[in-house]
Amino acid sequence: MQTALEELSKEEVIAAFRRLEQEKSEKKGKNFRLLHRCIMMFKAWLRGTHHSVSLLQAYINEYTWRFNRHSMKEGIFENLIR
């Protein structure tokens, strides 16, 4: 099974990149607002809570887990039942 990107011909991909090159962005720096906010929140959380570089990967894993579950409105009990 091919992905949508693999189904494109080489000419279609080149044409798409040319259109992107010609297109001027009027929103410089605003296209990645959510990404910048996530990075800023991660850095603030890391500075405020953790200080050991040797455990950095564990801290990143914990932040990712918390970020992925920040929109869950159910309580812990409902999540454990599932």
UniProtKB/TrEMBL annotation:
Q: Which Pfam families does its entry note?
A: DDE_Tnp_IS1595 (PF12762)
Q: Per the database record, which ranges form the ISXO2-like transposase domain?
A: 22-68
What protein name is recorded for this chain? ISXO2-like transposase domain-containing protein
